[in-house]
Amino acid sequence: MNRIQELYNSKKRDAYEAIKLIKDGDWICLPLGIGEPPTVLTALSEQRRNYHDVKVMQMFAQRKYGYYDPETAENVRHVALFVGVASRKGAEEGWAEVIPNNFYSVPKLIRDDHIKVDVAASMVSPMDSFGYFSLGVGADYSVAAISKAREVIVEVSPEVPYVYGNNKVHISQVSAVIESQFPLFEIPIARTITPVEKAIGEYVAEFIKDGDTLQIGLGSIPDVVITQLQNRHDLGIHTEVMTDCILNLFNAGAITGRKKNYLPGKMICTLGQGTRKLFGMMDHNPMVEMHPVDFTNDPYLAGKNNNLVSINGSIQIDFLGQCNSETMGVNPFSGTGGQADFAQACARSEGGRSFITLPSTASKNTISRIVPTLSPGSAVTTTKNDVMYVVTEYGVAKLRGKSRKQRAQELISIAHPDFRAELTMEARKMNLL
Fold first, then answer.
1. What are phi and psi of 279, to 5 degrees?
2. How far from each other are the two terminal CA atoms of the chain, in whole angstroms?
3. DSSP tag of 408
4. Residue 264's CB: how many other CB atoms inside 10 A?
5. Residue 332 in contact with residue 88, Cβ under 8 Å?
6. pLDDT tens digit string along 37-78?
7. Cα dihedral across residues 390, 395, 396, 397: positive or negative
8. Residue 145 pLDDT class (50, 70, 90 cuts)
9. Is the CB of residue 165 less than 8 Å from the CB of residue 292?
10. Residues near 172 by Cβ (< 8 Å), separated by ≥ 6?
């Protein structure tokens, strides 16, 4: 047995032994979404009453563990960098916390001690012969967290892909190794495409040309856009999240990366969110590289890609072009994520185009998503200065370079017809028409 394997064996623990490394007052940092270690979190949830003032920090939590409990929030509390399905109720009710951020800035917040990290815990691939594990479904801010943490706990799963790029942790950095008994969580593509989503997707697809480099956000509308691009050629990928929709484009032969001027031939991402088919494609694929988010989402670096196209969804947009993509009034719903990062990157990119997509209405056509001013308490995710194109099922509004009056006119033209008269009246009151 070689030295590397001996070191691995010496650090093997069951989950209950591993969580003894956690101390009262610690901050535990987990990767985004499906990179979270389920064996660790199950054990921590079962033992949560034995702790005091422990914070579990994560973006986009997907699975609801026992520690999501208002009665034990003083023992173990969730802290969201991006509100997910599991954390939404806690964020709304106040027993979970939310830290506002731009996605690309999170590693620096950790490195500069603005965000504390005592323990880093993550799903990882099986160790290679050199002693390295791959953070194969989420490099995100985890590389920075591992570098700062007092303790590093890895949960090894054969289902986690080994992905090339700057996303590795060496066995010498690890405090405890747990061999996972849980299947890797999967996020399938939404099965139902509504007529509204189809129309929006078709409008955006008209703007995407052969050789463009794509950043695709999460959500049904960005996914629909991808389905419209099967016949494009030589597309490139420089995105935050690799999804099954991108896998489908890859399998259709639409992605080659040959026309990319920055990192040509490489599909760049910081995390994977999808199914086993996606993870199989990413595993040991020389075309795929996963890097920390302060590389993938840095507006300067991403903007080095010519013809960068960014596609993201939103909740509400006002006449100035301010986009709220993360709150329902005062209630947290999601987070900033990489939307603002890539809006700025596209503005830097030669030939760049960024699209904010949203249905024209909500609540069964009773509420317009295009509004004179954002609802009180709403967050501004993408600013008026960064928004470029806004797309509903009624068309495309080009806002970049337009005056306040021109913006109002453009947005009213793509609002639902039932609300255009009311929006026009409000625009006149605001001296915008």
1. -65, -35
2. 78
3. H
4. 13
5. yes
6. 999 999 999 999 999 999 999 999 989 999 999 999 999 999
7. negative
8. very high
9. no
10. 7, 131
Place of tokens 């995390």: 271
Q: Measuring CA to CA, how many Å separate 348 from each of 25, 308, 344, 429?
A: 42, 9, 6, 35
pLDDT value at 433 more than 90: no
Residue found by looking up tokens 């970049």 in the block: 400
Q: How many CB atoms within 10 Å of residue 207?
A: 15
**Chain-centre distance of CA 2, in angstroms?**
39
Say if residues 40 and 156 touch (Cβ distance below 8 Å): no
Q: Please check whether residue 298 is in contact with residue 104, taking contact to mean a CB–CB distance below 8 angstroms.
A: yes
Q: How would you classify the pairing of strands 288-290 and 361-362?
A: unpaired
Distance CA 154, CA 39 (A): 10
> pTM, whole model, 2 decimals?
0.95
Could you give the residue numbers annotated as active site? Answer: 240
Q: Is 402 left (phi over 0), alpha (psi -120 to 50) or beta?
A: beta
Provide the token pair at 151: 């303790």
